[in-house]
Amino acid sequence: MNAKPPSPATPASPPADDWRIDRERAVRLFGPAAHDWPIEIVEETGSTNADLMTRLKALPQRRNALARPIVRVAYLQTAGRGRRGRSWVAQPGDALLFSLACVVPRPIDGLAGLSLAIGSALVDGLRTLPVAAPGQIALKWPNDVLLEGDKLVGILVETAWSTPSATAVVIGIGTNVRGADTLAAKVRALNAGADAPPVPGTTPTALSRVWPNANLTDTLAAELNALESALQRFGQSGFAPFQARWNACHAYAGREVALFEQGKELMRGVAVGVDERGQLLVDTAQGREAVATGDISLRIADGGA
Predict the structure, then answer these.
(1) How confident is the model at residue 16 (pLDDT cuts 50, 70, 90)?
(2) What DSSP designation does 78 have?
(3) Which one is the CATH code of 253-300: 2.30.30.100, 3.40.50.261, 3.30.420.40, 3.30.70.2190?
(4) CATH of the structural domain 23-247, one choice from 3.60.10.10, 3.40.50.300, 3.30.930.10, 3.40.50.720
(5) Number of continuous H segments (helices) and E segments (strands) in the chain
(6) Contact (Cβ atoms closer than 8 angstroms) between residue 202 and residue 183
(7) Is 0.85 surpassed by the pTM of this model?
(8) DSSP classification of residue 66
(9) What is the pLDDT of residues 50-109, one digit of tens each?
(10) Which residues of 33-58 are buried (b: 16+ CB within 10 A; e: fewer)?
(11) What is the Cβ-side half-sphere exposure of residue 226, based on CA atoms within 13 angstroms?
(12) What is the pLDDT of residues 226-272, one digit of tens each?
């Protein structure tokens, strides 16, 4: 099941001041497969990822342990985090914060590229929304979705357990829907005293930048509809079916980049794209290098636009 653009019969977006998720509207917008997913919506929790990790760890470790993915949405996460333990900053109603728990029918070494496949699906889902510049929603390796070069979505994938035939995973997704200016101010405050200028691709932005009526309800439906088919494909074939699509949405293709590990520059060169395992391909002075995900950050090299 693929996410589809809203048809003329689709009800108008809810008013911008009604920031809560309209469950009835969401159900109308969900595709037939996503209808079967349990979707929990709570006011507040520490971390939706942590909540679902606890549940997965309590399941029997077998391929059929979970009949269908579970989605848990929170308006506020008091201990939300992104890659490398960074805090996720968001006001209730401004960001769509949810986690998805599922059992992928692949061993843990078959999960290479899962976060990139999720990113590719999110781009496709978000581009079905009535945004003014769908082509400006793009991908930054390995786990971010950008809008006009700024950070729109963060993705965090964690594993609860693995067997030779299946792996239980929780996929955390945070999408900035509204309030980009307020969010940027909070991030600047958190980084107060830092000497370095903002790093391109890390400045937060929101969907409301290109969609005045941006709301959590339609964003949730678009993302889950895209994720449903993506999880099916990844479970069957891994990242390979997503490689071409990811490369087509690559924000930094053909640009000079620098890669850092624990704050130290690891290499620099021209970003080419990703291979069939989701490794970043970089043309350096020494030749083409393949970089695996991990504690690596990617930036436009000094002097890049």
Answers:
(1) low
(2) T
(3) 2.30.30.100
(4) 3.30.930.10
(5) 6, 12
(6) no
(7) yes
(8) -
(9) 999 999 999 999 999 999 999 999 999 988 655 544 555 567 889 999 999 999 999 999
(10) bbeebebebeeebebbbbbbbeebee
(11) 21
(12) 999 999 999 999 999 999 999 999 999 999 999 999 888 999 999 99
What the block records as the tokens of 78 is 């008091």
179-191: buried (b, 16+ CB within 10 Å) or exposed (e) per residue?
bbeebbeebeeee
Ordered strands of the 296-300 beta sheet: 287-291, 280-284, 264-274, 256-261, 296-300
Q: Which amino acid is at 1?
A: M
The contacts of residue 63 (CB under 8 Å, 6+ apart) are 103, 105, 163, 165, 166
Helix 216-237 and helix 114-126, axial crossing angle in degrees, nearest 10: 140
